[in-house]
Design brief:
The complex is a heterodimer of chains A (122) and B (631). With 122 residues, chain A is α/β, with parallel strands linked by helices. Chain A contains five helices and seven strands. Chain A has helices spanning 11-23, 34-40, 60-70, 90-97, 109-121; strands at residues 3-7, 27-31, 48-52, 75-80, 84-85, 88-89, 101-104. A five-stranded parallel sheet of chain A has the order 2-1-3-4-7, with helices on both faces. In chain A, strands 5-6 form a two-stranded antiparallel ribbon. In chain A, 45% of the residues are buried. Chain B is of the alpha+beta class and 631 residues long. Chain B folds into five domains: 2-127, PAS domain (Beta-Lactamase, 2-Layer Sandwich); 146-247, Beta-Lactamase (2-Layer Sandwich), CATH 3.30.450; 256-326; 335-494, Heat Shock Protein 90, CATH 3.30.565; 504-630, Rossmann fold (3-Layer(aba) Sandwich). In chain B, 42% of the residues lie in helices and 25% in strands. Chain B is built from 20 helices and 22 strands. In chain B, β6 (149-153) and β7 (159-162) form a beta hairpin. The interface between A and B is medium-sized, with 31 and 30 residues.
């Protein structure tokens, strides 16, 4: 079964994603921030990373960069509540850094799940 | 004794005459010199015997004599004292200035037989005078061009003297003489002048900020007034007061603008923060609702209720999205846009919805002006302002005037006191003759949730969204309004010089897009934007469109965008047709958040790859096309 790492500092969102993905029979690992995500990442186990962007202790952009370095074939989905803070367009930047998909919150679970399936089969 | 006294007297006279600094001579009626003094000889570098007996023609030349001297001597011989100034060559010094005085000298019989000529060298005096004049002129120019209004008035306020700048500050463009008028009459509150004079007595400069002054044109301005009162040393009574006056209107405008910007930034980051957190909460509500929908789908009861939760979430999402737009946290896809094209669409939309007693006029001056923006967002802003204007004239009727023109960066800086980002700006004006508003309302209308409309008549977000969109484009939106007269909204946008399409979408070049929709204004803008980016766009609004789908591969679209407002083709017809013909083209559905999609065949069958809610931004539709095509 495919392994998914959820990186999200917002507990409610993280748990919702965990519950939804476990229902789909994925193996799920949770991290509350970027630092924790980098510590918990196991290249052999994780196929997809879903990461929030604005987080304390290493943000999502750093997570995307570091993990793509560790495992180039890793699929990454970035999610964010606001596309942009100040002059930086974070979601666009996430895409440029290697995120395969970006979603703005609130997003449809169905869409997300469908996209995970597609990314895993591609 | 007498002989001796006469001798001394004569010597004394000779001494006095010869040592005079003036040239002295006695001229007879034949215009000949009879006597000259030493000074005369000194100036002429000659001896007395060489002059006495000679005619003035011999000494001065015939021309000078005829033109300048003879007439005056004749006048003098007729009994007049003649006084004039002239410059002439003197052998000793060259060119000098002289004052010449001819006094009639009576002979023994009382008739005038001689002229006493006195010629005084006034060159030094003249030079000194010239220097003083130059100095005075210099000072006068300095005072005239000083960027500060100068005024001298008597202690009661009567204007004695003022400079050009003062006149300009008071908008005295006809240059009427203000001397003799009372400065108090230009004060909004006359008593302020008296208070100022009381304060400004002890020979120190007193400064008063933002004094309300009424100009010659009747306009109220605020001035910084510096006063120095000059008092009589002995009586200590004030003699006059010197004023230095500066117009603070611009300073106040910049200060207010800065304050306003800061306020909007504060509200923006607060609202943006809340919207961000709210989106997180909505995420888990939506996620669990979707899971719940799957759980209970089997027995059906409750699906409708969960559907309503999902619908509420998408409504809430629309709201948070608007707030994020206001707080400039939504990135815009910017492309070169001809501003007047978007304006034309917006105006023709307004023409459709306006009441008959309202007329819309448009004056577009620089129709080729291009800005770098998302045209769908600009359309939103224009529509918003025009709907507001129409609503303001709902009861009275009136005229909405839409204008467009380019201005220089300098003009932009002058009007707004804001730093510039382009060499030229385009200004779009929306002026109505409606209800107008109070100053207190005007200063708050761009704040989110600030609304003067009745509950249910507006979200109170329209203008704040407009503010966010325009600010994101480095533009500016301003308002001027007079209660019961009307309002003028102005949008300033930097003109685009660098016309490149956005990088992120070059991979979508030449993909064919088929739009199935009512061909409305908003869509026309979206279509032309997609074309500009590089998509091949086809628009269709009826069943004929479906024929295109089953046509040969060359004209077959790569993607279909379907808006759910089409009376000719329902989503069911489209879905049946696609399934029947076995056509696999990704479909993007554009709908509004009030529609219940849970029973839509098109959505449930999986034909629709992406659902977008109105209003759709260019960025959303491009991202959606990219995702759909990449699959």
């Amino acid at each position: 079964m495919a392994g998914i790492l959820i990186v999200e500092d917002e507990k409610d969102v993280r748990e919702m994603l965990r519950d939804a993905l476990i229902r789909r029979k994925y193996s799920v690992i949770e991290a509350a921030n970027g630092k924790e995500a980098l510590a918990k990442f196991k290249a052999s186990f994780i196929d997809v990373v879903i990461t929030d962007i604005l987080m304390p202790e290493e943000d999502g952009l750093k997570v995307i960069m570091k993990l793509k370095e560790l495992k180039p074939e890793l699929k990454i989905i970035a999610i964010s509540g606001g596309g942009k803070f100040g002059p930086v367009d974070y979601l666009n930047m996430a895409r440029t850094l290697g995120a395969d998909e970006v979603f703005t919150k609130p997003f449809s679970l169905k869409k997300l799940e469908k996209r995970i399936d597609e990314l895993l089969t591609s | 004794m007498t002989v001796e006294k006469n001798y001394i007297d004569r010597h004394l006279y000779d001494h006095l005459i010869n040592n005079s600094r003036s040239m002295l001579s006695v001229i007879n009626s034949n215009y000949c010199y009879e006597k000259v003094n030493n000074t005369f000889c000194k100036y002429h570098k000659c001896k007395k015997e060489n002059v006495v007996g000679k005619s003035l023609i011999d000494i001065w030349g015939e021309e000078t004599f005829k033109n300048n001297i003879r007439e005056n001597i004749d006048l003098c011989l007729n009994g007049n004292i003649v006084r004039y100034e002239a410059n002439f060559q003197i052998p000793l010094y060259g060119e000098r200035f002289f004052e010449v005085i001819f006094r009639p000298l009576p002979g023994e019989e009382g008739n005038i037989t001689h002229v006493l000529a006195e010629t005084v060298d006034i060159t030094d005096l003249r030079l000194a005078q010239k220097a003083v004049n130059e100095l005075e002129e210099e000072f006068r120019l300095l005072e005239a061009h000083l960027p500060v209004g100068m005024l001298r008035c008597s202690p009661d306020g009567t204007i004695i003297h003022y400079n050009k700048t003062f006149s300009k500050i008071l908008e005295n463009y006809e240059d009427e003489n203000l001397e003799g008028l009372n400065i108090k009459d230009f004060y909004k509150e006359k008593s302020i002048f008296d208070v100022q004079m009381l304060h400004a007595t002890d020979e120190k400069i007193s400064t008063f900020r933002r004094v309300p002054i009424i100009t010659c044109k009747g306009r109220e301005i605020r001035c910084r007034v510096n006063i120095y009162v000059v008092t009589d040393k002995e009586t200590k009574k004030p003699l006059y007061a010197d004023f230095a006056i500066e117009d603070s209107t611009r300073e106040i405008m910049i200060e207010n603008r800065l304050l306003q910007t800061k306020k909007m930034e504060t509200i923006g980051s607060l609202a943006g923060g809340i919207a961000h957190d709210f989106n997180n909460i909505l995420s888990s509500i939506l996620g669990y609702s979707e899971m719940l929908l799957e759980e209970i789908r089997e027995n059906q009861s409750g699906t409708e209720m969960v559907g309503k939760i999902i619908k509420a979430v998408s409504k809430a999402r629309e709201l948070t999205n608007q707030i994020l737009t206001f707080s400039r946290q939504v990135g815009q896809e910017k492309i070169p846009v001809k501003i007047c094209d978007v304006l034309e669409e917006a105006v023709s939309f307004a023409e459709l919805i306006k009441k008959p007693d309202i007329s819309i006029r448009k004056f577009f001056r620089d129709i080729d002006a291009q800005v770098y923006a998302d045209p769908t967002q600009l359309f939103r802003v224009f529509i918003n302002l025009m709907i507001n204007a129409l609503q303001a004239m709902e009861k009275t009727g009136g005229t909405l005037t839409v204008t467009q023109e380019n201005i220089s960066a300098d003009q932009f800086r002058n009007e707004l006191g804001k730093s510039i980002v382009a060499d030229e700006y385009t200004v779009i004006g929306f002026e109505d003759t409606g209800t107008g508003m109070e100053d207190s309302v005007m200063s708050r209308i761009f704040e989110p949730y600030y609304t003067t409309k009745d509950v249910g008549n507006g979200t109170g977000l329209g203008l704040s969204v407009a503010y966010g969109i325009i600010s994101e484009l480095d533009g500016e939106i301003t308002v001027k309004s007079v209660k019961n007269k009307g309002s003028l909204f102005k949008i300033y946008l930097p003109l685009n010089v660098d016309l490149h399409p956005p990088e992120s979408i070059t991979d979508a070049y030449n993909k064919k897009v088929l739009f199935i929709s009512c061909y409305n204004h908003e869509l026309r803008i979206l279509c032309s934007a997609l074309k500009k980016i590089g998509f091949a766009v086809d628009c269709a609004s009826d069943v004929d469109a479906l024929m295109k789908l089953s046509g040969d591969e060359n004209v077959k679209p790569d993607i279909v965008i379907f808006t759910q407002d089409n009376e000719n083709i329902s989503s069911d017809i489209l879905s049946d047709y696609l399934m029947e013909k076995n056509i696999e083209v990704p479909v993007i559905l554009i709908t509004d958040s009030s529609k219940d999609l849970s029973k839509e065949k098109l959505v449930n069958s999986g034909i629709v790859k992406n659902v977008l809610f109105k209003p759709v931004s260019l960025r959303e539709i491009i991202a959606s096309i990219q995702i759909s095509l990449n699959k």
